[in-house]
Design a protein that fits this description.
The protein is mainly α. The protein has one domain: Glycosyltransferase (Alpha/alpha barrel), CATH 1.50.10.20. The strands form 4 sheets. A two-stranded antiparallel ribbon has the order 1-2. A hairpin with a 5-residue loop joins strand 7 and strand 8. Helix 7 runs antiparallel to helix 8 and helix 7 packs parallel to helix 9.
Length: 483
């Protein structure tokens, strides 16, 4: 028999947070573009269809909100039949997604949205957690609620957010009892071990609600993060374990002592495989923790991402026994991917076959093509981790589109400003050459600076050319819901 305790299985999916691009433009009615033809590819605005898709999803939520308490949640089956259970995690994902959407100002005045926010505030616990009492998953639900309240009205809910931050920080493991736990954060409650999914959730919640990267809790997570990475030079945990066969591909797994994609080898040994959602979670968390983008750990993870770029499945999950395994947690994967790439700042991914992928365009169009006629989304391939629940998956999808929307705005700024930066740097090069020739600057001092400036120009030109090409070859835009 299923009961409300079945919500424990939301643990993985609730790790996708709904804090996205930070756009708060209000109320304008978007005009849906006509369906694109192949020859139109690259001619229409790259963001075509995103706003319309988001608006239809928001309309779905307005009609789906629980009329009693304003919550969103999950329908469970027990011996008495179906039973709706409101959930802080799902409600928080919905609130944050809408509050970060281009329709935030308009929706904030509506009763359904205000009731959903109140539902979150009504579930504050004495210890600072924001969660359904007795339901478990305190870290997930609290972290999601922090970001939702921050997005909805940070000033009004400042005290609640501050106490919730303290609760999340209190869940961090010291590693005294188990070195593999050091710096990690877990579910809270009766669950007594950390994992990357919980840790990345907590890090993002803290950072998105104003905690600095230098904060002690966030800095302590770095050791746990690197022990989740399949990189032998920096993963000191693997080197001490006789039952682990190390992998050295730069990708990332669920925890130092577990992967959701594992190979059982002879003599009781295990191979913990890397997979997409955790690799993006790692990348995102390292950037939030202030680790430099050129750090070897970050570069190795990004290399794995370019090698395994995939919008059809969560790479690393598919097995011979289950060809659809890669569809499990697919929308969680989309969201983690979009936020990680957004804050990493790479507009274009170049895969080993030489193709340029404008992820903001490609991912947004993928999502739009999967949207149902009623404005919702659901994982019709694999319902594991409650991805058969349209309320959960639609919240993920709005968040993804918000991230893609912000990414495309960032690309517009890059295209606008980079030619000027190139011209300015080239002028600095000419000025420096002149000073070296005149003897105003010694060669030993000037030539290294000159080489650095020339490398900057080359990088800017390469980035500009790749972005322009990726837009020219991007898939045609469409706003058609799937049949």
């Amino acid at each position: 028999m299923k009961s409300t305790r079945n919500l424990v299985f939301l643990a993985f999916v609730l790790a996708a947070i709904a804090s996205c691009g930070g756009l708060t433009a209000g109320g304008a009615e978007p005009t849906a573009p006509p369906p694109a033809t192949p020859e139109d590819a690259g001619k229409q605005a790259p963001s075509a269809g995103i706003d319309s898709s988001i608006e239809r999803a928001i309309a779905y939520f307005e009609s789906a909100a629980n009329k009693t308490d304003g919550s969103f949640g999950v329908t469970l089956q027990d011996k008495e039949g179906e039973k709706y259970v409101g959930d802080v995690g799902v409600t928080g994902l919905v609130v944050a997604a809408i509050a970060k959407s281009p329709f935030a100002e308009r929706e904030a005045s509506k009763e359904y949205f205000q009731k959903a926010v109140k539902y979150l505030a009504d579930n504050v616990q004495p210890n600072g957690a924001i969660t359904n009492a007795g339901a478990g998953l305190e870290n997930y639900r609290t972290s999601i609620a922090i970001m939702a309240l921050e997005a909805a009205d940070a000033k009004k809910y400042a005290d609640i957010i501050k106490k919730a931050q303290g609760f999340v920080k209190s869940l961090q493991f010291s590693g005294k009892d188990n070195a593999a736990y050091e710096g990690g954060i877990g579910y809270g409650g009766s669950f007594v071990r950390p994992d990357l999914s919980n840790t990345q959730m907590a890090v993002e919640a803290l950072r998105e609600s104003g905690v600095d990267a230098s904060d002690e809790t966030i800095q302590k997570t770095i050791k746990f993060l690197q022990r989740c990475q399949n990189l032998t030079n920096t993963n000191d945990y693997d080197q001490t374990q006789t039952d682990i066969i190390p992998v050295n591909d730069g990708g990332v797994r669920y925890s130092p002592y577990e992967s959701k994609a594992v190979v059982n080898a002879p003599e009781g040994k295990k191979i913990f495989l890397s997979y997409g959602s955790m690799t993006y979670a790692f990348l995102k968390s390292m950037i939030y923790a202030g680790v430099d983008r050129n750090d070897p750990r970050v570069r190795a993870a990004f290399h794995w991402i370019t090698v395994n770029y995939d919008l059809d499945r969560n790479p690393g999950f598919t097995t011979e026994a289950n060809k659809n395994a890669g569809k499990q947690g697919l929308y969680y994967y989309y969201h983690t991917m979009s936020k990680a790439l957004l804050i990493f700042g790479s507009h274009v991914l170049k895969t080993p076959d030489g193709k340029l992928h404008n992820w903001g365009i490609e991912l947004s169009q993928k999502l739009i093509s999967l949207q149902d006629k009623d404005g919702s989304w659901a994982n019709n391939y694999e319902e594991r981790w409650y991805e058969g629940n349209p309320q959960l998956v639609t919240a993920y999808s709005i968040a993804v589109l918000n991230n893609c929307r912000q990414e495309l705005a960032n690309q517009d700024e890059y295209l606008k400003n980079t030619p000027g930066k190139i011209a300015e740097t080239e002028k600095q090069i000419e000025d420096l050459k002149s000073k070296i020739e005149k003897g105003e600057i010694a060669k030993a001092e000037g030539e290294p600076k000159l080489a650095e400036l020339q490398q900057t120009v080359a990088s800017l030109k390469d980035g500009l050319e790749e972005l322009q090409k990726s837009r020219e070859t991007a898939p045609g835009q469409t706003n058609n819901a799937k049949e």
